[in-house]
Amino acid sequence: GHANSQLKGIWIQTRFLQVPPTQGCYQLEGKVALITGAASGIGKETATNFIKNGAKVVMADINKQIGQQTARQLGANASFVTCDVSKESDISNAVDYTVSRHGQLDIMYNNAGIACRTPPSIVDLDLATFDKVIAINVRGVVAGIKHAARVMIPRETGCILCTASVTGMMGGLAQHTYSISKSSVIGIVKSVTAELCKLGIRVNCISPFAIPTPFAMDEMKDYFPGMDSKALADMIHNAGVLKGANCEPRDIANAALFLASDDAKYISGHNLVVDGGFTSFKSLNL
Ligand code: NAD
């Protein structure tokens, strides 16, 4: 008993000396998160941020190799599960894996999404591609919410997050298929909030501006085939409006950290727009 508490005291002291007492305002101490699309970009940055602020994180991604590698880099509070969000059984498995590993699921972040190359005119819309994108960006989000709710409802607590996009709020920023998928995410959040708010579960989404992650770079390469990566990244950044800042994965990760924390305990059904003012502006700043 005594020796134990002495040891504990030393441990706390050492820990206190090594780690600054506040990493940021919002803490996730004791919380367990499951993040889809966590091997790269926004998902990876959010996993890192959540762990830094005390959470245990299960990283789910279709890319097993990079996902496992990333989880290993993030240490003992990170683990990886292979998951294709377009398959309901994969989502269900990821949720069950999280609960069996950590005993609970507090935060479900439905972040995985893909871009697509479809013709710009609705007349030429390829409905097979449309179905494929909707299966990941919309059905994957719905399945994620469904299975998170399955384990959150009995505990009457939980936080569900999704990544939407400014392209889901305005027309003409991306091709129809992608825009439609992201406006659906914003709609899903409203619809599900209406049920789950009565059960103690918050549901929100984040709408980022363009960020030069692999996802956005792939998409842009098609439009501007001759440009190198640096020039493409600069172009994506320059499309923003806020002077002195670029939209980066950590801006989304910080928004997610806030929404996931108890400091956001009365925020539900919200679309947190992280766009440097873009959707209030009149046009691309090119
Ligand atoms: P990213 O390419 O860096 O990461 C996306 C991750 O999702 C990858 O690790 C990929 O393997 C994974 N993934 C793809 N399909 C999957 C599937 N079926 N199941 C599970 N995982 C899958 O891209 P990102 O920019 O971090 O994108 C994350 C989210 O942000 C997406 O929903 C995207 O639509 C959204 N978003 C991105 C931007 C941007 O400009 N980058 C802007 C607005 C919204």
UniProtKB/TrEMBL annotation:
Q: Taxonomically, which superkingdom?
A: Eukaryota
| Protein family (similarity comment) | Belongs to the short-chain dehydrogenases/reductases (SDR) family.
Name listed for the protein in its UniProt record: F-box domain-containing protein
Q: List the source organism.
A: Cinchona calisaya
Q: What is the lineage of its organism?
A: Eukaryota, Viridiplantae, Streptophyta, Embryophyta, Tracheophyta
Report the portion of the entire protein shown: 331 to 616 of 624
